[in-house]
Specification:
With 704 residues, the chain is α+β, with helices and mostly antiparallel strands.
């Protein structure tokens, strides 16, 4: 590993704008350089296109994804006016959260060449560098600042140093090669005997403000949280490979009583008998590192998913007759405070195996003392018992509405402390990263002994005001005798179809997905697409769990609790006929085509370039198929630049309506098959405040 320190995440305050601008520029370039250097560990071009595991994209995706992320956020922030390469940005836009351990479908991806992706990355690098030079700067930088998306893109790239290094580690050895700047630790020996250390009762207090913080943060870090922590005991060291071995030898992977129900399901699927990165050769064990296999370093931390860590704790509890479990997030904060830790220094090496300061691998669990403990931070991430949940005062950032909220499902657990490759924001005490419990992420664990049960905060109820309003709009009560709008649109569309084929339909701008389900009553298959992962998450939740829970504001801080089920809505029988995707209506992937019906409900006046959609949508509709557009025509410059409005302005001194614009654009390939109609809808804001709106519905038949 290089002896020079990998630059730390910049402080957001200061008085020297020029110096801060150059600090961020250096942070940007060193981050991209390091990320591209990581890909030099791939031995061949083929390595970019072979999936390391079925659940993730090949590495060519992750090379392009981090650059596309910059483009997407800069567009949303209004810092650039158009896409750089729409084709590549369509391919690289959306990553994969392992929704299950089912195979990821890769049939719809036409990957570009490695050279093409590096050229694209260079273009983005030059673009961002120019913005860093030209953008006005006011210190301190806050999350409302125009500089926030720049920092967001850099920190996102640093996250992918972590995720891409894991994928490289999961690649076949034939596809990877050692690299002088990515050298592992070469020290190993007998593991120290682990022991329990008493941790006195204490309290933790977390408070992070959008306007008064020293470092960049992700949305789930903001807000406040206070907790009193009862006394507990915690293991002095992370669990080593040597300490984990008796569990393996005791047939722990095949003993059902040690595994929770979800863990048993994963274990039955994977047929695992030992940790993923352990390799049995004859009678000896080896460990797979990022680019090589080495004889088992028994004193290094074992790397496992949550299910394996939890099963080990249950096994240890059974043989020790003690209440052994994983620590909670709050207990980890208590350990951090007891160890008297602080943030990674700016100009000195970290106090742990962190921030690429030492190795491109784990190291002995006894190398980095932190108070009475070792590796409270660094070496490997540590699984906790705590599902992801919002702090009081949580809010999503408008430029990245789906960073955390899709994980508020009680299926993602927090990991704490960082690993050897964690850098930037990941190293901060305040960072809160979470993964699905069967996921591998340079993660291990330590255990605690406590009579206090692990508190399980829940995010089952959607509390975001906008999302709750949309949940009610789609699946809730009717108000003022106005029928449910998404259902009404589906009924109008189905009636208009008449005797036309009803094989496939596209609900474009599906929001929470009610029309998607309703169309599936009559169509063989319906696809719902929306730009917001938060919205489609409600449809996905109904498919996966059959229930949607949310709160509704009554008045002030008073809320009502609502629950809707697919069964109660009479839609349970159609859940296997729908699917949901996140996507940009102005930049859809090519495989979204061949539809007998496309419904675009209340969409066109919220697009940054509606004409781009309207001029190409005929390519996605079958001949004789229908396009149904609904809109209140509420054109706003905050969504659509005025020069991109389809109507609602004067042309040559005369009124030019949106309907005029639709006829002009769509008339080349469609005919209007009936007169427009107005369909009302009501959105409930509070118990006594409602929005009552009319949406104009036009139905078009494709003729060429």
């Amino acid at each position: 590993m290089s002896q020079s320190l990998f630059q730390r995440t910049p402080l957001l305050d200061g008085s020297d704008v020029t110096a801060k601008r150059e600090e961020i520029r250096q942070y940007f370039h060193t981050t991209l350089d390091r990320y591209e250097q990581l890909f030099e560990t791939l031995r061949t071009k083929e390595a970019y296109y072979k999936k390391p595991i079925s659940l993730r994209h090949p590495l060519i995706f992750y090379l392009g994804h981090t650059a596309t992320f910059f483009t997407n956020k800069l567009i949303l922030a209004g810092l650039i006016g158009e896409r750089i390469d729409p084709r590549l940005e369509s391919i690289f836009a959306v990553g994969v959260d392992e929704m299950s351990w089912d195979d990821l479908d890769s049939t719809h991806y036409d990957w570009p060449s490695v050279e093409e992706v590096f050229t694209y990355r260079k273009t983005i690098r030059n673009l961002v560098d120019r913005l860093i030079s030209d953008m006005p700067m006011v210190l301190p930088i806050t999350w409302e600042s125009s500089w926030w998306p720049i920092l967001m893109g850099i920190e996102h790239e640093r996250i992918h140093l972590e995720t891409s290094s894991v994928l490289i580690r999961q690649h076949q050895l034939e596809f990877v090669q050692p690299h002088p700047e990515w050298q592992p630790c070469r020290t190993s020996g007998t593991a120290p005997l682990n022991s329990l250390i008493d941790v006195a009762a204490g309290s933790i207090s977390i408070s992070k403000s959008k306007t008064d913080q020293l470092h960049y943060g992700w949305d789930n870090e903001y807000g406040s949280h206070n907790a009193d922590i009862p006394a507990f005991k915690a293991s002095k060291y992370l669990v080593s490979n040597e300490e984990f071995l008796p569990f393996v030898e005791a047939n722990g992977y095949r003993t059902e009583s040690y595994w929770l129900e979800e863990g048993r399901a994963w274990q039955e699927f994977s047929r695992a008998e030992h940790p993923t990165f352990w390799v049995k050769k004859g009678n000896s064990w080896h460990l797979r590192l990022m680019t090589e296999e080495v004889p088992m370093p028994w004193d290094w931390p074992v790397e496992v998913n949550y299910h394996e860590a939890k099963a080990f704790c249950n096994w240890k509890a059974s043989i020790s007759d003690q209440p052994v479990r994983l620590p909670t997030e709050d207990e980890w904060y208590r350990l951090y405070d007891v160890a008297q830790l602080s943030e990674v220094p700016l100009h000195e090496k970290a106090r742990g195996n962190l921030h690429l300061d030492f190795y491109a691998s784990s190291c002995p669990v006894s190398e980095f003392a932190q108070g009475e403990f070792f590796d409270i931070v660094g070496n490997v991430w540590q699984w906790t018992e705590t599902p992801t949940h919002p702090f009081e005062g949580f809010d999503v950032h408008p430029l990245y509405d789906d960073f955390t909220t899709p994980t508020f499902d009680n299926q993602h657990n927090l990991i704490k402390g960082g690993s050897w490759v964690s850098c930037g924001n990941e190293t901060l005490r305040s960072s809160r990263y979470a993964f699905r419990r069967h996921f591998f992420q340079h993660a291990g664990f330590r255990y605690v002994v406590s009579d206090a049960p692990a508190k399980q905060p829940t995010s089952n109820y959607e509390t975001d005001k906008l999302l709750s309003e949309y949940a009610e709009f789609h699946y809730g009560d009717s108000y003022f005798d106005v029928p449910n709008f998404p259902r009404a649109l589906a009924e109008i569309a189905i009636s208009a179809m008449g005797n036309r084929p009803k094989r496939t339909a596209l609900d474009l701008g599906c929001a929470s997905g009610r029309s998607t389900f309703e169309l599936a009553r009559n169509f063989d298959h319906v696809t719902g697409i929306d730009f917001s992962a938060r919205f489609i998450g409600q449809g996905v939740q109904l498919v996966q769990h059959g229930v949607l829970r949310y709160t509704l504001v009554e008045e002030g801080d008073l809320v009502a609790y609502k629950e809707r089920t697919l069964t109660g809505l009479g839609l349970d029988h159609v859940k296997d006929h729908v699917e949901f995707y996140q996507g940009d209506a102005c930049n859809l992937k090519p495989f979204f085509t061949g539809y007998d019906l496309i419904l675009a409900a209340n969409l066109i006046d919220r697009l940054y370039d509606p004409a781009k959609l309207l001029t190409s949508i005929h390519t996605r509709v079958n001949s004789g198929g229908l396009l149904m557009i609904t809109s209140p025509y509420t054109w706003l410059t905050e969504h659509t630049k005025k020069e991109s409005w389809v109507g609602g302005f004067k042309r040559d001194g005369e009124n030019f309506t949106t309907l005029d614009g639709l006829k002009e654009i769509l008339g080349k390939h469609f005919r209007l098959i009936q007169e427009p109609i107005s369909v009302p809808f009501v959105i409930r804001e509070t118990k006594r405040k409602f929005q009552h709106t009319l949406s104009e519905v036009t139905i078009w038949e494709k003729i060429s």
